[in-house]
Design goal:
This protein has 64 residues and is mainly beta. 12% of the residues lie in helices and 36% in strands.
Length: 64
């Protein structure tokens, strides 16, 4: 889950061309714990907080 907001900006360059800028300002990123996802998909309800039990294991494979 990513939380944040979008900022739009426009300006005219020295050459007279109008430029546009779109920025995503991220305030919080939370990665879902793989074990919690397995428990939930098995039909049960995961009894963990949104942060899980410490987040993620750096030794786990990245799923993408």
């Amino acid at each position: 889950m990513i939380q944040g907001h979008v900022e739009n900006d426009t300006w005219t360059g020295k050459d007279g061309v109008e430029h546009y800028d779109l920025r995503l300002i991220v305030s919080d990123i939370r990665l879902k714990n793989r074990r919690a996802a397995t428990e939930t998909s098995a039909g049960g309800v995961a009894d963990r907080s949104p942060e899980g039990d410490g987040g993620y294991d750096l030794n786990d494979d990245i799923p993408f």
